[in-house]
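Reviewers of the previous submission asked for a worked example of the structure-prediction workflow described in the proposal, so we include one complete record here. The input consisted solely of the amino acid sequence. No template or homolog information was supplied to the procedure at any stage.
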Amino acid sequence: MNRAESVSKKALTAQAGFGRYLDSLRYALHVITHPFDGFWDLVHEKRGTLGAAHTFLALFLLTRVLKLLLTSFQFISAPVQYINVFEEMASLALPFLILCLANWAMTTLFDGKGRFRDIYTAMCYALVPYILIQLPMILVSNMLTFEEASLYSVMLSISVIWSVFLVFVGLMEVHDYGPGKTFIFMIVTVVGAAVIIFLLLVFFSLLSDALSYFISMYREIVFRLN
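From that input alone, the workflow returned the following structure tokens.
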């Protein structure tokens, strides 16, 4: 194979990969409107991609930050001057990833069939209603009066309820559970995530204490030598 053929083959492969990525983005609309069939095909028929999942997670984090920064002061009171964008994103991204990890860790106890990749992809696709509703509502909030706050609140509630419902259906299809077992599994997942967060806090607290001890010991040695 000559150089021209190799370059052409790589270009075709990249084009096909990008086309599949775009298809997986569009497929999210089918998932949120036909969740049972959508999530099944998303995982078992490989209709979803990690690239699309990453995109939806990034848009979810961006929506949260823009909501804090640009929503009308009538509907949200956030100290804009003190908001750290990266901290806000991390405060959502880390718990989200820990929930995915806890869900995957509990599959052994509940005979779940989903891999971490499947769980992560399904939960990212479940964020789409939150993005599609709350992102435009940032602009709409600056056009509404305080008396129309009920409309704003209803739309935000719909976005959250819709996304939670999709998480429920997504996990049910990923692990091939029934509704009752999925509900219990979600509760156990939240408990598992809380345990993981607690252990991480304990670990970093002990690590901080150990570092402080060695630093103080080093300073004491240096002081005595001098």
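The chain has a mean pLDDT of 86. We consider this example representative of the routine output the project will generate in years two and three.
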